[in-house]
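Example (one chain per record):
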Amino acid sequence: MKIDKSERICAFCELCVPMYDGDTVLCERFGIVSKAHSCKKFSYDPLKRTPPKAQALPTLEYIDIEN
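Predicted structure:
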């Protein structure tokens, strides 16, 4: 799966583990870095991405067509 260069950040890399504060990650290569950090050893991990929320379905009105 190809991802955009702007999305090649440590938050989605399989070499990184999120830290307890939520703003930093622990990288195997560089140590503690920002989630927005990127490097040439980036390897995409699709399980780290959270999918967008589904839109709410519109409510439908009941119209009686027999009367």
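Caption: The chain has a mean pLDDT of 87.
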